[in-house]
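A quick aside before the break. I want you to see a complete sequence-to-structure record at least once, exactly as it would be stored in a machine-readable document. Don't worry about memorizing anything.
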Amino acid sequence: MCELCNEMFLARACYINRRPVRFCSRKCRCFSTRKETTIEYDNKPFHLDAYGYYVNKGVKLHRIIWEKHKGSIKRGYIVHHVDGDKLNNDIDNLLEIEWGKHTIEHHLRRINNEQY
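That is the input. The structure line, written in tokens, reads:
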């Protein structure tokens, strides 16, 4: 049973082996750990999406912060949260990294069951 919405759900065995499954969806998991679901930046409201990012009209807050402080994001690169906390949008916690390297890093963390 989901700890947030109290819906009954079935979890795949591969997820159960990693860690206890407490929520029925990514959306419930993200909302369960977040206290504020809406914040304001540059007089624009940003709300939490189902993946745990603050967004406004489809644009993620961490990308806006990066572009404001460091300039445009190069093609083929993404903005990565160094500590893994998607809500920590401090410029010191953001890193522009090549898309492929970012994918490999997250894949290796998942294989090794590492937490940030």
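Two observations worth writing down. The chain has a mean pLDDT of 83. The chain has four helices and six strands. We'll return to this after the break.
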